[in-house]
Structures are given as structure tokens and as C-alpha cells.
Specification:
Helix content is 70%, strand content 0%. It is mainly alpha-helical. The chain has one domain: N-utilizing Substance Protein B Homolog, Chain A. The longest helix has 16 residues.
Length: 131
């Protein structure tokens, strides 16, 4: 899979956090790969590893988002936008393998594909505060 496809897989798995308890996520992760997203073993390992790293930092990421957004907090954001922002913030702040510009661009592309009309601008504006 390409990096973009892997990032989409991470986004889709991370999106499940909004609808499941964290203690249910190992089972959700297993179902994700069994039922919907058959991937090569190395791709599945990459997606799982990154998902777990992001999951461990969710409270920190949400706190950072809440500090940098005015008039918005994580409870008011759409679930799609919030998930994209969580992934983007993780890549900007914690993933040294992803340049900041790439993280922002890829987040905007995810917002175009999965979000609403205003999502790309919203995501770009918030992630720019982390650059």
C-alpha cells in the first residue's frame, strides 16, 4: 500500500474510537482487518502500530487541540474532523518520519475525501497552528 492508503486505513481504524470504548478497541482492530480491510501482514502491522501509538496519546492530543482552537473544542468538532486532526497532530508532534508539511497536506486530503465541504479549510487552519 502507498503511504496515503496506509494513512486512510489508520484514519478509518482511529475513527472507531469515537464509537467504542478503548478496552473494546483490540477486538475492533481485529474485526477491522478480518472483515473489511484485508491488508498484507506488513501493512496491517504498520497500521496497528501507528494506531496504538496515537491511541496512547489521545488525551494529550485532545488537550493540545483544545488549547489551540478558539470557539471550538474537541466535543464540538465533527467526529470525522476530530479523527483527522488527531492523526495530523500526532504526525506533526510525535512522528519524526513525517514532515510537518506532508502531515498537513495529507490531513487536508483526508478531509476532502471523508469530511464535509468546510472540513479541508477547518483542518488546514487548525493544523497550521501546530506548524
Amino acid at each position: 500500500m502507498s503511504r496515503r492508503e496506509l494513512r486512510e486505513q489508520i484514519f478509518m481504524l482511529l475513527f472507531r474510537v469515537e464509537f467504542n470504548r478503548m478496552e473494546d478497541m483490540p477486538e475492533q482492530e481485529q474485526l477491522f482487518f478480518e472483515d473489511e480491510h484485508a491488508a498484507k501482514e506488513e501493512d496491517a502491522a504498520y497500521v496497528s502500530d501507528k494506531f496504538r501509538k496515537i491511541s496512547e496519546k489521545l488525551s494529550e492530543i485532545d488537550s493540545q487541540l483544545n488549547e489551540r482552537t478558539q470557539g471550538w473544542d474537541t466535543t464540538r468538532m465533527s467526529k470525522v474532523d476530530l479523527t483527522i486532526l488527531r492523526l495530523g497532530v500526532y504526525e506533526i508532534c510525535y512522528d519524526e518520519d513525517v514532515p510537518t508539511g506532508v502531515a498537513i497536506n495529507e490531513a487536508v486530503e483526508l478531509a476532502k475525501k471523508f469530511g464535509q465541504d468546510a472540513s479541508p479549510g477547518f483542518v488546514n487552519g487548525i493544523l497550521a497552528k501546530f506548524a
